[in-house]
Amino acid sequence: MSTSFRFELVSPERLLVSGDVEQVLVPGAEGDMTVLAHHAPLLTTLRPGLLDIGLPGGEHQRFFIRGGFAEIGPSGLTILAETAIDLVELDAGRFAQAIKDAEEDVADATEDAARDRAKTKLDHLRQVQTTLNL
Description:
Elements: E1 5-10, E2 15-21, E3 23-28, E4 31-36, E5 42-45, E6 49-54, E7 60-73, E8 76-86, H1 92-108, H2 112-132
Parallel strand pairs: 1-8
Antiparallel strand pairs: 1-2, 3-4, 3-6, 5-7, 6-7, 7-8
Helix pairs in contact: 1-2
């Protein structure tokens, strides 16, 4: 029984990762989940968070992702993310700007539904900021 499976991370701009992996920690809308080989089929939306890819050999590649969905099927795991930033490229200043933008979205919202969505996004960004110690 193979312990690796096919994984692809796609953003609107480009294919970011494509290859065999051993596990992927996915920030699903209902909570974090670890996907391993032979996982049951599943489709879930994503929340802002840390995507941790376990590569063969024990190395890890991490991305901050926001928006999109994950599809687990017989061919492996595909993540289509609205935003995906390699943590190697993510800096505290850029992340702080994203939080500032989200705070402005909350302040500028004129409808309750829009304000609630903006608050949820802001809460998620703050959780990631705390998790990553940015």
